[in-house]
Amino acid sequence: MQRSSRMGSVVVLLALFCVVTSHLALAFTDGLLGNGNFEKAPKSSDMKGTVVLKSNAIPEWEISGFVEYIKAGQKQGDMLLVVPEGYAAVRLGNEASIKQKLNVTPGMYYSLTFSAARTCAQDEKLNVSVAPDSDVLPIQTVYNSEGWDLYAWAFRASYSVAVIILHNPGVEEDPACGPLIDSIAIRALYPPKATNKNLLKNADFEEGPYILPNTSWGVLIPPNIEDDNSPLPAWTVESLKAIKYIDSDHFSVAQGKRAIELVGGRESAIAQVARTIVGKTYELTFAIGDASNSCEGSMIVEAFAGSDTIKVPYESKGKGGYKRAVLRFKAVAIRTRVMFFSTYYHTSSKDFASLCGPVVDDVKLLSVRSPRRLV
């Protein structure tokens, strides 16, 4: 009887072990973080007006400093506070932060996606960190007429547990002034490699940050001066303004599911360095078009490969479409920098406020075989 009881206990323990290990294996999934959209509210006893009083009052988050829980439709004086998605968001006052821990795989790359909107100051910033990586993202430029934007930020995991922190480093006269944060999500990145079919990596832009379902705004990828690890593997944003990452569910793209939109004119450039052989001839082919987002007018994309360049015009009606272009060049170095930017600045014809621009997709870089000599 005792032996049977022990065997039963072993079976139960094994079953519990399987449940626990299977839960740990599923601890990370692409998508929203735990309560990433802040729809689970603090208890009323843990709040004073909009101010959250306890560090663990917001389910699945730890907070510090002056943090407010803002509901949709709420006003500050005569100003309506814009909640990007759903029922609620949080606002980070002076030196305030929100924090969450997540099981990850050391050595892997991850990209965070989150909504941010400034509420008071013109020069609001947001510090995003997962130790040892940390960057300050300027959010004073509003790309979307809605008053907020989706941003991406990437990190490489150094430990098995990532401590994700969003912090407002600003110090304003009004301690409540600070960015509204909402819809925090994550995606694992798998950087592709160059092949004999394309010397550029991730040239179709399929590998990139998480795009929230049912959102038609795209995700901003900040300049590399603010982000050491690109949310768009293999590419860097070498400019002052961000580029926008878009998907075929909500925009027109030339090929596949993802593409990039150059929304900041000459201040919105994307680049990659490829291995080349000196003296060999190469062809850089790519597609340019519009995202079917009412971005109308005469567009020009300038493409560079080393010291060679081409300007490709595209007349956009804002309803989708694309054309292909080719830049042939001879390599003068063992590494050639490929870069794209938009010559002009554009805004949507729907509101004349949302920044937009030409779409670049389906980029290829291949060597051109020399014709065989006849002897």
TrEMBL record:
SUPFAM superfamilies assigned to the protein according to its UniProt record, in alphabetical order: Galactose-binding domain-like (SSF49785)
Q: What range(s) does the DUF642 domain occupy?
A: 31-187, 198-365
A Pfam family that the UniProt record links to this protein: DUF642
Where found?
Secreted, Cell wall
Is NADP among the key words of this record?
Answer: no
Q: Please provide the record's keywords in A-Z order.
A: Cell wall, Glycoprotein, Secreted, Signal
- Does the keyword Secreted feature in the UniProt annotation? yes
Q: What is this protein called?
A: DUF642 domain-containing protein
Which species does the entry assign this protein to? Olea europaea subsp. europaea
